[in-house]
Fold Kinetochore protein NUF2.
Amino acid sequence: MGKGIFPPLSSNDIISSLSAWGYDINKEQLRHPTPDFVQGVFCACLKQVTDIDAEALQDPVTRALNHTQLVDKDLYATSLSNHLLLRHLTRFADAARVDHFCSRDIYMPERERTLFVLSGFINFIKFTQQYCEDVVRKLRDNSEGIIVEREKVSKKLSQITEEIEHIKAKFALDEPKCVQLREENAAIRAQLFASKEMQVQALEEIKNLKIEKADIVKEKELINAEIVSISALNTRAQSRIVKSPDRIKQKISTMGFTLQQDKQTVAMQESKARDLQAKITALTNIEKDVRGCIEQLQTIEKEVRSLQESQKELHQLKDLVEGQQIRHKELHLHRERLFKQLSNAQEKLERAQRHAEDRKVASQKTIERLQAEYDDMVVERRDTDKQVEDIRAQANEIEGKINEHLKTSETELNQLLAEYWKLRHNTDVYMHTLANKLDMKVDFI
C-alpha cells in the first residue's frame, strides 16, 4: 500500500470529519468495514466534491437503459450503476492521489486500506474547500452555463429538426404534384412549340393568300374597267350600223363567256377569302389558347420559383443545423479544454503544495540553524554581560573617585577664589588709602 502525499488521519479525525458532513459512523465500523458501509462512506466523500452519489446516478442509468433494446433492463441496472459509481470514485481517487484504487477497495474492504483511502479523500476535500473553493465554484458556474447553453442548443436543434422533417414531409407531399406539374409543363411546352410552328405556317399562308387576294382584286378591277369600257364601246357601237352581226354576236358570246368565267373566278376568290377569314379566326382562337398556355406556363414558373425558394430555405435550414452542430462540437471541445485546464490547475496546485512542503522543510532547517546560532549568541551574551558588569563596576568606582576629586577640587577652587577676592579687596583698600595720603586720583576697577 502506497503512503501517498497526504498525512494519515486517525479514526477520531475521520469520524469527526464525516460527522461534520452529516454522515455519522463509529469506530467499530472503521475497525470492521463492510462493502455497504465503505460504499456509503465513499459516496458521502464523493458527494462533497462532485454532488454525485448512488441516487444521482439512478436517473441517468434509467435513461441510458431506455435507449437500448435490452429485454430485461432491471438485470443490468444495478451493474451499470455500480460501474458508473466505480468510475467516478476512481477519478476521485486519482485526483486525491490515492494509488491503485479499484473495486476491491469497495467490495472487499480492509481496515488499513479503508483508513488510507478515507484519509486521502478527506484531506483532498478539506484542501479543495480551503484553497480551491473559488476556482471550483467558477468552474461549476461555467459548467452550468455551458450545460444550460447546451440544453438551449439541443432544444433549438430539435425544433429545427422538426421543422426540417415538416418541410421534408411537405416536400414529399408536394412531390407528386410537382412531378405532375412538370409533366404538364413539358406537354404544354411541346404543344406550345407545335402551335408556334403551326402559327408561323398559318401566318405565312395568310401572307401568301393576302398577296394572292390583292392580285385577284387588282385583276378584278382591271376586268371591271374592261367591262365598263366594253359596255361603253358596245353602247357606242349600237348606234352604228353593224356590218358583220355574226362576228359581233360571236364576240359578245365570247365576252359573255369570259365575263362568266371572271365571275366564277371572283366567286372562287371570295370563297377562298372566306376560307382564309375562317382560318384567320381559327388562328386567332389558337393565339388566345397559346396566350392562355403562356399564362399557365408563367403560373407554373411562379410555382417552380416558389418551390425553388422552399428548397433554398431547406438548404439554409440544413446549413443552420450544420452550424449548430459545429457550435455544439465547439462547446464540447471548450468543455474538454475546461476540464483539461482544471486538471492542469490541480497539477499546478500539487506542485505548489510540494513546493510549499519543500519550503516548509527548508524553513524548519533554517529555524533550527538560527536557534542554534541564537543559543550560541545567548551564551556569548552571558559572558559579555559579565564583562559589562565588571566594567560597569569599575566605571562606577572611577566615577565615584572622579566625583570625590571634583568635589575636592571645587572646594579648593572656592577657597582660592575666596582668598583671591579677599586679597583683591585688601589691595584695593590699600591703594585707596595710599592714594588718599598722596593726594592722587586713581580709578579703581
User: Anything to note?
Assistant: The radius of gyration is 66 Å. The first helix runs from residue 11 to 20. The CA atoms of residues 205 and 211 lie 10 Å apart.
